[in-house]
């Protein structure tokens, strides 16, 4: 259950920043994962709760898989840890920056098709609109 995931989740290096907090590479039960660490603040709690509810119900190959979420207490502060699938290639922007030349049209098509598939799934199956799409 959640308590074993809580105990077995370890943060490693930071890999990005999201709207509400930082994202780390980590391990959980021997698997590589991404972990969003979100400071709990009253003004963002409802948005975060809504995001987790959406993630729980998503089952699409082009959407990062939600694994679990739990509270962590450290030095009198609460943070929410959201454990997710780790996408090892980095963001599209990072891939673009690593290239010496512009991305090939076929690769751009592949990325756009995956993005559009995920958006279609969100709109038709989950009935949600994503407000934070970036490269």
3D architecture notes:
The model has no long low-confidence stretch (mean pLDDT 88). It is built from 4 helices and 5 strands. The N and C termini lie far apart (34 Å). By secondary structure, it is α+β, with helices and mostly antiparallel strands. Helix content is 36%, strand content 32%.
Topology, element by element:
Layout: H1 2-8, E1 9-17, E2 22-28, E3 31-39, H2 45-57, E4 66-74, E5 77-85, H3 92-98, H4 105-126
Family: Belongs to the protein kinase superfamily. STE Ser/Thr protein kinase family. STE20 subfamily.
Protein name: non-specific serine/threonine protein kinase
Domain Protein kinase: 9-135
* Total number of beta strands: 5
Radius of gyration, in angstroms, nearest whole number: 16 Å
Terminal Cα span = 34 Å
The secondary-structure element order is HEEEHEEHH
Percentage of helical residues?
25-40%
Organism: Phaeocystis antarctica
Domain Protein kinase: 9-135
Keywords: ATP-binding, Kinase, Nucleotide-binding, Serine/threonine-protein kinase, Transferase
Protein name: non-specific serine/threonine protein kinase
């Amino acid at each position: 259950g959640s308590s074993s995931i809580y105990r077995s989740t370890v943060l490693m290096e930071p890999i990005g920043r999201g709207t509400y907090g930082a994202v780390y590479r980590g391990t959980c039960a021997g698997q590589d994962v991404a972990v969003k660490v979100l400071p709990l603040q009253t003004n963002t709690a409802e948005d975060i709760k809504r995001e987790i509810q959406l993630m729980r119900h998503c089952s699409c190959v082009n959407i990062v898989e939600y694994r679990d979420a739990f509270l962590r207490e450290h030095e009198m502060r609460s943070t929410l840890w959201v454990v997710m699938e780790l996408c090892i290639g980095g963001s599209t922007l990072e891939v673009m920056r690593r290239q010496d030349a512009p991305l090939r049209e076929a690769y751009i098509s592949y990325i756009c098709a995956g993005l559009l598939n995920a958006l279609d799934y969100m709109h038709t199956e989950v009935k949600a609109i994503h407000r934070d799409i970036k490269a």
